């Protein structure tokens, strides 16, 4: 058991880190040895964390195990509330603006940028953790920073990759998965013809819907804004992306315009689609069900195809953890975060997540989970390869608001369903985005 005095001295991780150094690499031991801020929880402190519902039960189990270790070490009880992925964002915004509710939140993308003045500054902690562990991945770090300050700490990128039935791809006449968008469209057409279609979400899915929409746009060279934050969505590149999406949509099963984050998993596991994009959680759901053993053995993963832009450009679901200013126990909350990011605790959580959560810090990229199974490979570099949703402009209230309002997701949905012409759908997105990116 970790003794409370050791915890308060900020040195409890040293011996444990030394013990695991041979397994995880010298960088972890070096990271743990770096100086960390020390926080003394307030007398009688207790904490409440709002987090998203896990898709991998072992991920939550590892988080809860680390939390119990923290409570055992400090006496600070931590209550963890779970909400669906879509509900975390509005509940966190309400808590921030009314000044009551959970002390901390695990939120999405650049949500902290919507209420930065409602969050505790954690610059000292974010800087020290980064320096001790090889540095934050830039894309993840950008979500948690406002200027020179950390208003949150990056937790992870939830890798998004194509998952598909290998035998169904081959039955459609393809010996290997196409690497470009043109070949990908042909594959989807062929799989539909064989009765084993694809399906991607065009609904308001905070993860999968945004991941798909941003890949469609970026792979064709489009972008919501330029480097100065000027809305540039109305472009030939965007039109090409929309037209491509319309052709892909013709190969999907009906109803994908209403899909949320649970629907593509369910459709794949039910055998309704043989190709979609998802986290590795779908594989583990199939693996634990004896009735789906054949499916699990047939599943493969790969990164999304490269479009006319000529490079891999993907959005990955990202999560940060913030402390609300209304908390009565800010020192306890910072102590909790410091504890959870210690190498032995972070590595245990990453392993528990079974390749579902990609590490936020470079020191943890050699965690053996990434090479433990071939299907993990497509998810291993999510933190390093992700492009922030506000590309190519700065992250802030405008980028966060535009994403929270599903401007890009709705643009594609309007066009593929015939609700609007491609040109009108783009103009609608342009008009809506300009509400946030006011000059």
Automatic annotation (TrEMBL):
Pfam families per record: SBP_bac_8
UniProt keyword annotations, A-Z: Periplasm, Signal, Transport
Database matches in InterPro entries: Bact_solute-bd_prot1 (IPR050490), SBP (IPR006059), TAT_signal (IPR006311)
Keyword field contains NAD: no
Keyword Signal tagged: yes
Subcellular location: Periplasm
Signal peptide start and end residues: 1-29
Main location group: periplasm
CC per GO annotation: periplasmic space
Family assignment from sequence similarity: Belongs to the bacterial solute-binding protein 1 family.
UniProt-recorded name of the protein: Carbohydrate ABC transporter substrate-binding protein, CUT1 family
């Amino acid at each position: 058991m970790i003794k409370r005095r050791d915890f308060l001295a900020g040195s409890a991780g040293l011996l444990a880190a030394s013990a695991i150094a041979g397994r995880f690499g010298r960088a972890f031991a070096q990271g743990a040895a770096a100086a960390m801020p020390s926080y003394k929880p307030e007398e009688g402190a207790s904490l409440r964390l709002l987090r998203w519902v896990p898709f991998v039960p072992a991920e939550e189990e590892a988080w809860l195990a680390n939390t119990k270790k923290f409570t055992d070490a400090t006496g600070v009880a931590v209550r963890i509330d779970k909400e669906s992925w879509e509900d975390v964002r509005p509940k966190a915004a309400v808590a921030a603006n009314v000044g009551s509710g959970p002390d901390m939140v695990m939120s999405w993308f650049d949500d902290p940028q919507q209420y930065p003045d409602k969050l505790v500054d954690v610059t000292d902690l974010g800087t020290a953790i980064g320096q001790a562990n090889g540095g934050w991945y830039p894309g993840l770090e950008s979500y948690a920073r406002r200027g020179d300050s950390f208003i949150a700490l990056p937790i992870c990128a939830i890798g998004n990759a194509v998952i598909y039935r290998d035998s169904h791809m081959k039955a459609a006449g393809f010996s290997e998965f196409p690497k470009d968008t043109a070949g990908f469209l042909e594959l989807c057409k062929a799989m539909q013809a064989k009765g084993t279609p694809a399906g991607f979400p065009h609904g308001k899915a905070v993860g999968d819907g945004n991941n798909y929409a941003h890949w469609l746009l970026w792979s064709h060279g489009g972008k919501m804004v330029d480097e100065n934050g000027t809305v540039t969505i109305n472009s030939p590149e965007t039109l090409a992306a929309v037209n491509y999406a319309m052709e892909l949509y013709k190969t999907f099963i009906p109803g994908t315009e209403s899909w949320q984050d649970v629907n593509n998993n369910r459709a794949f596991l039910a055998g309704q689609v043989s190709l979609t994009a998802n986290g590795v959680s779908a594989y583990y759901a199939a693996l634990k069900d004896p009735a789906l053993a054949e499916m699990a053995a047939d599943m493969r993963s790969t990164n999304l195809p490269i479009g006319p832009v000529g490079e891999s450009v993907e959005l990955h679901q990202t999560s940060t953890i913030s402390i609300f200013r209304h908390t009565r126990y800010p020192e306890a909350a910072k102590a909790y975060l410091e504890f959870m990011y210690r190498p032995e605790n972070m590595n245990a959580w990453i392993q528990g997540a079974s390749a579902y959560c990609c590490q936020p810090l470079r020191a943890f990229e050699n965690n053996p989970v990434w090479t433990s199974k071939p299907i993990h490979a497509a998810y291993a570099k999510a933190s390093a390869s992700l492009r922030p949703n506000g590309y190519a402009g700065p992250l802030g209230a405008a980028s966060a608001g535009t994403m929270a309002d599903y401007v890009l997701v709705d643009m594609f949905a309007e066009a593929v369903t015939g609700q609007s012409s491609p040109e009108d759908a783009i103009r609608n997105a342009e008009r809506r985005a300009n509400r946030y990116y006011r000059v």
